[in-house]
Amino acid sequence: MPTNEPTKAAATELPRTHRRLALHPTVAAASRRTKSEPKQPLTLDEIRRIAIAAGADDASAVSLSHPDLAEEARYIEAALPGARTLVAIVVRMHVDNVRSPERSIANLEFHRTGKAVDEVAHAIAKALGELGHRAVNPAMAFPMEMDRFPERSWIVSHKRVAVAAGLGKMGLHRSVIHPRFGSFILLGTVITDAELTERAHPLDFDPCLRCQLCVAACPVGAIEPDGSFRFSACYTHNYREFMSGFTDFIEEVADSHDRHDFRARVSQSESASMWQSLAFRPNYKAAYCLAVCPAGEEVIAPYLESKAEHVRTIVRPLLDREEPVYVVAGSDAEAHVRKRFPHKRPRRVRSSLRPRSARHFVEALPLSFQRERARDLTARFHFDFSGDDSIQATVVTDKGDLHVEPGLNGKADLAVRSDGSLWIDILEKRKSPLFAALAGKLHLRGNRALLMRFRACFPR
């Protein structure tokens, strides 16, 4: 009877280094198996059927070569060498839970749906594996690669992938709006080496209604009517009990002289909230931009029936809610809270955007820029950082706008030159800029008064 089991005679025909391996029971068992068929490319419909069977509410896929994903490629390929395709999945949230003014109800919905996204993505990855394709599923949110924090700690931008795969469009509030489910979704991505037989097409219309209810509801004014977005305002408040906010909390503990001083700095309810986030997953401080959004075929009906009722029952309770709002001193967000929501309590904290390198300092400038603080500032700055942390950049402020360019371009009103690590020490107040200048380690050329004007546009 024919057999695939290796014999001693067959083994002697192999190179010496393989002879012992060929006689191993595991190799013998594997050699008896029928060789698998070559991996077949997958259609979008096939991938969608796999995702829906795994529990997704909607799904699509996009090639990693898509031009909108160029910035994602190296991180994705590091997670799965040979990656070709990204499977984008949508799991919808229960609308009324997200819209509740009670944060525990809304946060429970985020956690429940987030867990479902991870489980669905895992099931899809396993199903693709059974078809012979390698696949991994990065987390919907956490855990992330915190050794890369505060730069890019995530593996893949689920929002970018979902938009490229045609599952929605980015709304004014900077979340993806699905054509059916609106803003009440969480996203996930499965990375696979499977090949697609066809291209994904972007959604051919924008589900965002431009009603600007998200603009009105945001407690820190992060969303502006003209489409601009104050990233630092959203990040500082909404993510208070995540990452940098937790670091600031610990620094408050370290800086306190005793328990009385700590209690004067941090209220009992804040401490309890931080404990709750550590014990039961971090809690968002506001998702009001999502809560008030009426977009989506399966969400919009009550809004169309009565916009006034939508404002009265959904928007107004969030606007009227008394709560602490976390802001950086001197920021646009602090001014917005005091003007727009006098019944809410501005709570000053340290900036959550604190670079650990000169390169990250340059990259993070657009994220922490305060437009209102720069309305009367028009100037060109050159930053020339040397050493192990070297980078050159031109920064232009123009009446509330910011432009950051690589290299030293044009004539600077103020040129700053120093070692990159020294600059970070100055930002963190570990080194004095005056002493650094006197020692010849910090060089300023031009209008030195502009440095303070520049610094005021990036409060810390």
What does this molecule look like?
This protein is of the alpha+beta class and 460 residues long. The chain folds into four domains: 1-35, no CATH class; 44-192, no CATH class; 213-349, no CATH class; 358-456, Nonspecific Lipid-transfer Protein, Chain A. Strand 4 (169-170) and strand 5 form a beta hairpin. 41% of the residues lie in helices and 16% in strands. The protein has helices at 8-12, 16-22, 25-32, 44-54, 73-79, 95-99, 103-130, 158-164, 213-217, 231-238, 243-255, 259-265, 268-280, 288-291, 301-305, 307-320, 332-340, 358-368, 420-427, 433-438, 449-456; strands at 58-63, 85-92, 135-136, 169-170, 176-177, 185-192, 324-328, 345-349, 378-386, 391-398, 401-406, 414-419, 442-446. The strands form four sheets. The chain has a five-stranded mixed beta sheet.
Layout: helices, strands, pairs:
Layout: H1 8-12, H2 16-22, H3 25-32, H4 44-54, E1 58-63, H5 73-79, E2 85-92, H6 95-99, H7 103-130, E3 135-136, H8 158-164, E4 169-170, E5 176-177, E6 185-192, H9 213-217, H10 231-238, H11 243-255, H12 259-265, H13 268-280, H14 288-291, H15 301-305, H16 307-320, E7 324-328, H17 332-340, E8 345-349, H18 358-368, E9 378-386, E10 391-398, E11 401-406, E12 414-419, H19 420-427, H20 433-438, E13 442-446, H21 449-456
Parallel strand pairs: 7-8, 9-12
Antiparallel strand pairs: 1-2, 2-6, 3-6, 4-5, 9-10, 10-11, 12-13
